[in-house]
Structure formats: structure tokens, C-alpha cells
């Protein structure tokens, strides 16, 4: 709880991954992938309940052993490729409310972003709960190689700069402006705002900036290989 508001840590883990089958329980540095998110949620002092929404019995079993609550299996219509994240989130919130567990804030932690840290969740929730001008917060990383100054389109087979004023041979340290992308490791919002805006990003959304290496999202085998290497480096103290 923070500022009198109950916080739900929600981890969504669908069983039917196509890019990397079984990814949510695939080992990462000796732990099933989903366990990293469960442990990070449990380490946050403001989260009152850690719940996993899944349609997979094997995922549910792993999550329960790690200390998460799995009070239901997600219905099939919310576990296919067409299911919207907001519907999955509100289904969990409403199911819990039906059992007498009410929450004011939802923190969505997708298991495919295991490189976040508990301190990121804690910091993001503090910013959200102590600022009356914001109703949600999402984690972002600074765009460097993907800065507009380095982007091109292809027209009739030829490269065309995205920016009309884009110079040739621009150096990274010389680009103007700082840009950020939503990197997906932390989403948090009041429940009221989720119902109103049907998502986390709107005019009242703040940013929580994380290191670029944390932005790895595991969708394919190459992502899992990179995440394994980065997590290993962090466990050795080489990354902060």
C-alpha cells in the first residue's frame, strides 16, 4: 500500500507463445523466466498482492511455487492472439473484486521483460502515488540508435532520411533533442484511469527512465540469448 492506496502487482503470462514456445517458464540464469518478475514484485514494499493471469497450468504451478497468487485460469477468449491487454487486466481486477480483494493501482509486469529491478517498480509507484497530476506511469529508455536523426525510409529502392534537415554522417553526440521509447518493463496506473482511457498511455502519463539494457523484451530466441548474457553480467556486478 502507498498513500492509502492498495497496489496490485499483475503478471500476465499466456501459454501459447509462437515466437518462442514455452518462453514464460524457459530457464533464464537458473530460474524460470516468470519467476524473475514474481520475485521483483514481491520485493516491492508497496505491492499488496502479486497475481499471475495465465491460461497455462504449468505456468500457474511455477508461479505459485515462486510465491505468486493464481486465483483463476484465464478464459480462452482472453488467451488468443486477438485478446487485448486491457481486457486481460480488467478481467483480473474484476475477478479479484468479486472475491473481496479491491485495488486502487495496478502495476503490470510482463515476464518477457526480466531485466527490470525491484527498485524500478518501487520508484515508479512512488512517483505515481505522490503526484496528483499523473494517473499512470510507464518505463522508457532513451532512443539512441533509433533517434530520428539516424532513421531512413526506403522509397523506390533508395534511402530517404526521415528528417528533411538530416545531415550526412551525423554523430550521436551531435544530435539535437532527446527521445524515448516505451520499453515495456513497467506499467502502472490507477484502476479508474485504466477504465477511463483503456490503457496506460494518455495525457496524464509520466515516464520512469530505465537503463537501455533493461529494455530487452523476450519474444524470440535471440532475445532470450541476449537477456541471459545481460542478466549474467548484472549478477556478476558488471551492470548496474
Automatic annotation (TrEMBL):
Name of the protein this chain belongs to: N-acylneuraminate cytidylyltransferase/CMP-N,N'-diacetyllegionaminic acid synthase
UniProt-recorded Gene Ontology molecular function terms: N-acylneuraminate cytidylyltransferase activity
Question: What Pfam family does this protein match (any one)?
Answer: CTP_transf_3
The organism's superkingdom is given as Bacteria
Identify the Gene3D superfamilies for this entry. Spore Coat Polysaccharide Biosynthesis Protein SpsA, Chain A (3.90.550.10)
UniProt KW keywords: Nucleotidyltransferase, Transferase
Amino acid at each position: 500500500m502507498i498513500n492509502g492506496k492498495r497496489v496490485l502487482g499483475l503478471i500476465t503470462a499466456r501459454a501459447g507463445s509462437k515466437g518462442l514456445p514455452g518462453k514464460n517458464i524457459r530457464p533464464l540464469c537458473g530460474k524460470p523466466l516468470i519467476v524473475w518478475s514474481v520475485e521483483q514484485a514481491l520485493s516491492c514494499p508497496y505491492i499488496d498482492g502479486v497475481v499471475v493471469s495465465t491460461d497455462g497450468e504449468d505456468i500457474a504451478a511455477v508461479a505459485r511455487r515462486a510465491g505468486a497468487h493464481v486465483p483463476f485460469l484465464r478464459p480462452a477468449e482472453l488467451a488468443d492472439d486477438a485478446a487485448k491487454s486491457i481486457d486481460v487486466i480488467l478481467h483480473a481486477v474484476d475477478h479479484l473484486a468479486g472475491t473481496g480483494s479491491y485495488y486502487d493501482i495496478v502495476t503490470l509486469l510482463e515476464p518477457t521483460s526480466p531485466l527490470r529491478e525491484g527498485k524500478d517498480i518501487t520508484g515508479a509507484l512512488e512517483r505515481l502515488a505522490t503526484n496528483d497530476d499523473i494517473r499512470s506511469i510507464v518505463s522508457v529508455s532513451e532512443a539512441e540508435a533509433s533517434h530520428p536523426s539516424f532513421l531512413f525510409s526506403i522509397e523506390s529502392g533508395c534511402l530517404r532520411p526521415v528528417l528533411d534537415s538530416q545531415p550526412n554522417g551525423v554523430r550521436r553526440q551531435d544530435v539535437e533533442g532527446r527521445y524515448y521509447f516505451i520499453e515495456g518493463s513497467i506499467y502502472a496506473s490507477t484502476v479508474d484511469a485504466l477504465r477511463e482511457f483503456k490503457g496506460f498511455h494518455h495525457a496524464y502519463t509520466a515516464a520512469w527512465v530505465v537503463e537501455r539494457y533493461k529494455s530487452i523484451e523476450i519474444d524470440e530466441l535471440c532475445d532470450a540469448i541476449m537477456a541471459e548474457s545481460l542478466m549474467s553480467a548484472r549478477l556478476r556486478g558488471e551492470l548496474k
